[in-house]
Amino acid sequence: MTEDKKRILEKIRKCMALGSSANEHEAAAAMRQARKLMDMHGLTNEHVELSELGKETTASEHVNPPLWAAALQTVIARAFQCSAFSGRHRAIFVGRAENAKVAAYTYEVLMRQIKLARQAFTAERVPVWLSPAQKKKVSQGYCEGWVSSVQQSVREFAAPLRDEEGEKHQRFMEKETGNRPIPEAKPRKSVSERHSLARQASYAGAADGAKVSLHHGVNRGEEAFRLAQQA
User: Fold this and answer.
1) How far apart are CA 124 and CA 114, in angstroms?
2) 127 φ, ψ to 5°?
3) Helix (H, G, I), strand (E, B) or coil at 193
4) Measured between alpha carbons, how far is residue 161 from residues 39, 50, 84, 205, 225 in Å?
5) 23 within 8 A of 45, measured Cβ to Cβ
6) Are strands 53-59 and 90-96 parallel, antiparallel or unpaired?
7) Mean pLDDT in the chain?
8) Number of Cβ atoms within 10 Å of the Cβ of 122
9) What is the C-alpha to C-alpha distance for residues 173 and 56, in angstroms, rounded to an integer?
10) Across residues 88-95, what is the average pLDDT?
């Protein structure tokens, strides 16, 4: 989107906001101006609605994210009223532009935290005689437990994303990708439910994950800053 188009859309949004003014004459004039600008530039209500949204992409080590990685992305998206989408080696957040930025940043911070916690757990508490396959399951179980605790923390303050907002995010992504549907991030099968060693590791992960907290600050930037201090 060009800067000129962004500027025009922002002006239309401001006019529409004034359209809800208690002053009937002011409201009517604002809506007439909004409609005039839309007609002049070939814009629709859909263009205006989607112009408030943004997409933030951050790198991911996974082609097909395991349960814990997809769940972490989803819970962060929920915390910031965004939708989570997956791509090859990419985690994508869509929502109001400022929310999507903070969601992507939070994902990066928490991914660093969980990797460091997993590394320490593996070095200190995983028997060296386990096979590589067993170590992988134990590692995934630990991460599942860690993320489950973060999910509990987010549930304390996150408002559910309304269906109409989720649909709007999907339409935004389709326009961004030439109307090609993009899959939302979906959790895969749990390792800790199927393997006893992984289940034991998940308890340790849950205890460590409980030390991580997400809160609402005065604004999103402050919230992200406070979260970064825990990294």
Assistant:
1) 15
2) -60, 135
3) coil
4) 32, 16, 11, 27, 24
5) no
6) antiparallel
7) 77
8) 14
9) 11
10) 88
Question: What tokens appear for 119 in the block?
Answer: 């590394």
Instruction: Decide: 9 and 48 in contact? Cβ < 8 Å.
Output: yes
Per-residue pLDDT tens over the stretch 109-136: 899 999 999 999 999 888 889 888 888 8
Give 3-state DSSP helix, strand, coil % of the chain, rounded to 5: 60, 10, 30
Judged by DSSP in three states, 141 sits in: helix
The pTM score is 0.72
End-to-end CA distance of the chain: 35
Burial class (CB in 10 A: 0-12, 13-18, 19+), 131: exposed
The Cα–Cα gap between 164 and 167 comes to: 5
Order the strands of the 90-96 sheet from edge to edge: 53-59, 90-96, 83-87
Which residue matches tokens 């997400």? 214
Q: Report pLDDT digits (tens) over 31-65.
A: 777 677 667 767 667 666 667 788 899 988 887 88
Alpha-carbon gap, residue 85 to 74, rounded angstroms:
9
pLDDT at 151: 83
DSSP E strands in the chain: the ranges are 53-59, 83-87, 90-96
C-alpha 14/C-alpha 190 separation (Å) is 47
